[in-house]
Design brief:
The complex is a heterodimer of chains A (about 230) and B (about 100). With about 230 residues, chain A is α/β, with parallel strands linked by helices. Chain A is built from 6 helices and 11 strands. In chain A, strand 10 and strand 11 (about 190-195) form a beta hairpin. The longest helix of chain A is centred in the last third of the chain and has 13 residues, at about 215-225. With about 100 residues, chain B is α+β, with helices and mostly antiparallel strands. Chain B has one domain (about 25-105): Phosphoribosylformylglycinamidine synthase subunit PurS (Mth169, Chain: A), CATH 3.30.1280. The chains are: A alpha/beta (about 230), B alpha+beta (about 100). The interface between A and B is medium-sized, with 19 and 11 residues.
Chain lengths: ~230, ~100
């Protein structure tokens, strides 16, 4: 059996890194590499990089701002440019926008409060590496847990994202004030996905739902076939 | 001519403050004000405004919350370098503007 070479990056204050590694291992059958933020290099020949949720660097300055400038992110940016799939969940999404790998910014929730609950989502584009396991327009349920998930970009950027099919996931209900209810966006090459909901917290019935499993399965299958 | 007591090039961990003050450059204080761009919704500012109204203060039409960052830098640090610091880290140019002021130390 082919091994799936994934890396999960841990920043000081990450708290979903073990869940992410566990989800990747359960779905792919291979144990991911665990990489520390201060490392300068990633393992060779990676199939997948995950930036987990949490509160990296205590959310100092802005959520994700410090992590985006940490040594390992230079290697992540270089890997993304080579086409390595990169998934950022929650704080990982914030890190990806702060690092410039995805457009826009994640601001304080419009309702001010931290939102921690299951939310309805719509798969807006099932043509990506990450979403191929869903059907177009499929409604799924995933948990969110964030204070800064209010996606902002200027109108021209939003129009471009919509026009290029880069809105991967949209909330099916009001959650945090995000522009056009955007929950997850892709980069222009389609190999970087940032999303606020937590697929790694919904991969088996014991989690209360398993709608997140197909996201990892899509990536694993897509890469093994490629 | 390098001062023999100053750290060798390549020893960045030695902080300027650890050297006697008469050998270091004069320090200047920089105040960086970071604010949300006009048109960007500011939920925190809105909550502050509501609280002010709740306390009975009338006439507050809008509140925008920003961030103040004070730096102490060698006087040789250029405006261009300060500008780069803001663009690369202190402000998020997608949502924020910044203003740099040199203030009396």
């Amino acid at each position: 059996m082919m091994s799936f070479r994934a890396a999960v990056i841990t920043f000081p204050g990450s708290n979903c890194d073990r869940d992410m590694a566990d989800a990747l291992e359960k779905v792919s059958g291979s144990t991911p590499f665990r990489v520390w933020h201060g490392d300068a290099e990633l393992p060779d020949h990676l199939d997948f990089i995950a930036l987990p949720g949490g509160f990296s660097y205590g959310d100092y300055l802005r959520s994700g701002a410090m992590a985006a400038r940490s040594p390992i992110m230079r290697a992540v940016i270089a890997a993304a440019a080579r086409g390595v799939p990169v998934l950022g969940v929650c704080n990982g999404f914030q890190v990806l926008t702060e690092a410039g790998l995805l457009p826009g910014a994640l601001m304080r929730n419009a309702g001010i409060r931290f939102v921690c609950r299951d939310v309805a989502l719509v798969v807006e584009n099932n043509q990506s590496l990450f979403t191929a396991g869903y059907s177009q327009g499929q409604r799924i349920t995933l948990p969110v847990a964030h204070h800064d998930g209010n996606f902002f970009a200027d109108e021209a950027t939003l129009d471009r994202l919509e026009g290029e099919g880069r809105v991967a996931l949209r909330y099916g209900e009001p959650v945090n004030g995000s522009a056009r209810n955007i929950a997850g966006v892709l980069n222009s090459a389609g190999n970087v996905l940032g999303m606020m909901p937590h697929p790694e917290r919904a991969i088996e019935p014991a989690h209360g739902g398993s709608d997140g499993r197909a996201l990892f399965a899509s990536a694993v299958r897509g890469l093994v076939q490629a | 001519m390098p001062d023999p007591r100053s750290p060798a090039i390549g020893s960045p961990r030695v902080h300027a403050r650890e050297r006697p003050s008469d050998e270091s450059q004069n320090l200047v204080k920089i105040r960086v004000s970071v604010s949300l761009k006009p048109g960007v919704l500011d939920p925190q500012g809105r909550a502050i405004q509501h609280s002010l109204e709740g306390l009975g203060f009338a006439g507050v039409k809008d509140v925008r919350a920003g961030r103040l960052i004070e730096l102490e830098v060698d006087e040789g640090v250029t405006d261009a370098a300060l500008d780069d610091m803001c663009k690369q880290l202190l402000a998020n140019m997608v949502i924020e503007n910044y203003r740099i002021e040199r203030v009396a130390a």
